[in-house]
Amino acid sequence: MIIGALHASDRKPMIATGAVHLAHLGVIRAEGADASTFLQGQLTNDVLGQPPGVARLAGFCSAKGRLQASFWVVKRAEHDLLLLCAADLLEATRKRLAMFVLRARCQLVDERASMALTGCIGEAALRAAPDLAPWSWHAAPDGSLTLRLPDAAGVARAVVIRSLGAAASDAAASDAPRLPLATWRWLEVQSGIPLIEAATVDRFVPQMVNLETVGGVDFRKGCYPGQEVVARSQYRGTIKRRMQLFDAPAPMAPGDEIFHAADPAQPAGLVVSAAPHPSGGWSALVEVKLAALEGGTLHVRAPDGPVLERRALPYAID
After folding, report:
1. For domain 18-191, is the CATH number 3.30.1360.120?
2. Residue 6: is its pLDDT beyond 60?
3. How large is the average pLDDT for residues 238-246?
4. CB within 8 A of 192, min separation 6: which ones?
5. Residue 166 has what pLDDT?
């Protein structure tokens, strides 16, 4: 088997339209007169230049350039921004960001108890976000917000953010059939967009998970933690690991190590995100050494573990 060969999935499942409670995600709200300026100095993307009605991907790095979290940044106003991230690292991330606030007029609030996130899939997404381009959002009169995401596996996706206790503003979210979270998580994997979770904190420079490829890094903006490391990786051609899409016949989870059969002594990669495939088996986004893609077999959790089969990402990597 040649790992470098790409395989178009011959198991494209029919995904039902419906809605999913996104319990694995949460919201940090940055509010205050200096909120945008503060985040501009902390995140990998340009927050100050973010236009109205557009969301952006961004990372929060350590001084060594390793991702502590990944965000979908929704800028409702210069003084009011929502950061959607993995729920299992949200509070630790909020506390770490708060360490750098100092005298800036910015508060970072954990909104998990006050905001609900609903994922809309298929026709439900098209009804919830009519005429919206990917990464665009609109607000409803009741204060809820709908964000259109890029399609995944040919399926439309959108997220509705609303205050708990408020009626959903769109029947697409409130009346759509309920779907399991696993369906949404599989589409997340198919999108090729990384989600840093607790198991993968401090493991990747942004390029290792293709964050700059999907628009999550701005190399022209000012400094942020780890900026020199990220820029050096980009311009000196030192990127030797990339995130790829794989299928396997057995369960996988973020943080699982990947081994190459020809080099069983050390891991060749790490699972970033994983979800059960609707047609059986599992799919995963895997950060892996580029050299390991040139031939042989890759295995999950052990050198003789289940074999990975590489699939095509929805975008090209430079």
Report:
1. yes
2. no
3. 93
4. 210, 214, 243, 245, 285, 313, 314, 315
5. 57
Q: List every span in the chain annotated with CATH 3.30.1360.120.
A: 18-191
32 dihedral zone (left: phi>0; alpha: psi -120 to 50; beta):
left
Answer yes or no: are the C-beta atoms of 136 and 53 closer than 8 Å. Answer: yes
pTM: 0.93
- Residue range(s) of every CATH 2.40.30.160 domain in the chain: 206-311
Q: Residue 193 contacts by C-beta under 8 Å, 6 or more apart in sequence?
A: 57, 150, 214
Q: Measured between alpha carbons, how far is 167 from 159 in angstroms, rounded to an integer?
A: 15
Q: Looking at residue 246, what is its pLDDT?
A: 98
Who's near 316: CB < 8 A, 6+ residues apart? none
Dist CA 212 CA 59 (whole Å): 10
CATH of 206-311, one of 3.40.1440.10, 2.40.30.160, 2.60.410.10, 3.40.50.1820: 2.40.30.160
